[in-house]
Design a protein that fits this description.
Number of strands: 14
Radius of gyration: 26 Å
Distance between the termini: 46 Å
Order of helices and strands: HHEHHEHEHEEHEHEEEHHHHEEHEEEHH
Number of domains: 4
Number of helices: 15
Helix content: 25-40%
Strand content: 5-15%
Strand order of the largest sheet: 2-9-8-7-6-3-4-5
Largest sheet: 8 strands, mixed
Length: 482
């Protein structure tokens, strides 16, 4: 659905917004001899952007905006990349020796360093040729899907899942089907359903671990189950592991799925963006775990190499820093980062437990998000209080921005980020709690919690003036009520 942008959403320059442009005629511009038409890409749309565009200008101007929506861990400034990584990038730029083009598939030293990091025990060592350097993880995903985009192809995608997957499929003309994750069981894949979804045109399955938006970190047992199912179905795996190592429990660490894949080829993507907290550096990679040469024989490696020759890869100085970044010993930095994310996650779970109508079906074990569930009958609204309604009203009334689960094909859920400083997170939850109390169908009062508190104090003061302290009607300390 396209919604006309509000006056607040229009750029100061007066240029039309992208949202408005989507409404223009498909026939293009035909005047005064001009004949200009856009390609089908004009219809391409990231579901998150479609919904967020509708929320532009809704924030309450009387309250400062608190965003719990953006998946950029650097926004608030308290989560920083490793010092060694910053120093290496600075050194690479300062050397003035990485200002030219490098190999289109990636600088040889960077590819070798990535191959070394992702080589697995008891498997043949990866070679530089098994690695492709990309402009962020998004391009790595795009290259993989494009390389598999044979006529009539379809890909299996997780639900809930990151919406960019379907956007990339649409971009490359690939159909997609959704498989469901089990919210009552750590958001594990419902493996039995994959058999019914897979058909003769299914070319791959996308597995996201640790996951966005669910925060799941899959156990070895479940990863083995996924690989066994894919072996039976003869189904290659596209492994989105950009949140690698972002796992909160030492007893449930991140494990790469290629470690258990056997003959199943795995195309694993990652980047510096999440694990190293540097999304703006725009450096990612694609690793081909193709031990039985299934993908290379099919020409997939060649297809990806050809795509790299079009995009020409990420910035050469950032690539030059990759070997030192991957070799740096940063255990203390990583542990500090994980501790902050763990504390924020636990805080959200604790606050959620005290809010009417919200719950956390499966506690996050990693990544950077908490997925909250709305109880359908918990909120009052004549036409239904959906997750989209919740987020729009929360923004309009409390200036707190969250993403509705509908963005991730999880209607009835809400996603918030945990890459937020403690004080900001506390303020956000205070507002969320107030909002939920105000709209709760369980309350018999229409007053806000603040108004109820003031009325309660006034009532108690009145009673205290009319009754003796020995009547047993009042506690000895009125401030203890509450």
């Amino acid at each position: 659905m396209t919604v006309e942008a509000s006056s607040e959403a229009r750029p100061a320059s007066g240029r039309r917004s992208v949202t408005l442009e989507r409404r223009k005629s498909l026939d293009g511009y035909h005047r005064d001899g001009w004949a200009v038409r856009a390609s089908a890409v004009r219809e391409l749309c990231n579901p998150i952007r479609r919904i967020v565009d509708e929320m532009v200008g809704l924030a309450n101007p009387e309250k400062g905006l608190i965003s719990l929506a953006q998946g950029d861990p650097t926004v608030f400034g308290h989560l920083l990349p490793p010092k060694a990584a910053v120093e290496e990038v600075t050194r690479a730029f300062g050397a003035y020796s990485h200002n030219g083009y490098t190999a289109s598939a990636g600088a040889p030293a960077a590819r070798s360093a990535v191959a070394k990091r992702y080589s697995l025990p008891d498997r043949p060592a990866l070679r530089a040729e098994d690695v492709f350097m990309t402009i962020g993880c998004s391009e790595a995903l795009s290259h993989v899907i494009a390389a598999m985009a044979v006529e009539g192809a379809n890909v299996l995608l997780p639900r809930p899942g990151f919406p960019l997957y379907e956007t990339l499929c649409q971009r490359h003309g690939v159909a997609y089907k959704f498989y469901d994750l089990d919210g009552e069981n750590g958001w594990e894949i419902k493996l039995d359903a994959l058999t019914d979804l897979r058909d003769e045109h299914t070319v791959a399955i996308v597995v996201n671990n640790p996951s966005n938006p669910c925060g799941a970190v899959y156990s070895e047992e479940h990863l083995r189950g996924i690989c066994a199912t894919c072996e039976t179905l003869r189904l290659p795996i596209i492994a989105d592991e950009v949140y690698e190592d972002v796992a909160f429990d030492a007893t449930r660490p991140f494990l790469p799925i290629a470690q258990f894949s056997g003959r199943v080829p795995v195309m694993s993507v990652s980047a510096l963006s999440k694990r190293w907290l540097a999304p703006g550096w725009r450096l990612g990679w694609l690793v081909m775990h193709d031990y039985d040469h299934i993908l290379s024989t099919a020409g997939v490696h060649m297809a990806i190499n050809n795509l790299c020759q079009v995009s020409l890869g990420p910035a050469a100085p950032i690539q030059a820093a990759v070997p030192a970044i991957l070799e740096a010993r940063e255990e203390e930095w990583l542990q500090t980062t994980l501790d902050m994310l763990r504390v924020a996650s636990k805080y959200c779970i604790d606050r959620c437990s005290r809010v009417r109508g919200l719950s956390v079906p499966s506690e996050p074990q990693g990544a950077m998000y908490v997925l909250l569930k709305m109880r359908e009958d918990a909120f009052t609204e004549e036409e239904g209080f959906t997750d989209v309604t919740f987020c729009k009203r929360l923004l309009a009334e409390e200036s707190v921005l969250m993403l509705p689960g509908t963005c991730f094909h999880a209607p009835g859920y809400l996603r918030l980020v945990i890459t937020v400083p403690e004080d900001e997170l506390e303020r956000a939850w205070d507002r969320i709690e107030c909002f939920c109390e105000r709209h709760s169908s369980e309350r018999k009062f229409t007053d806000s919690p603040k108004d109820l508190t003031e009325k309660l104090k006034s009532s108690l003061t009145f009673v205290d003036s009319c009754a003796s302290s020995d009547d047993g009607l009042m506690p000895s300390d009125a401030s203890a009520t509450g």
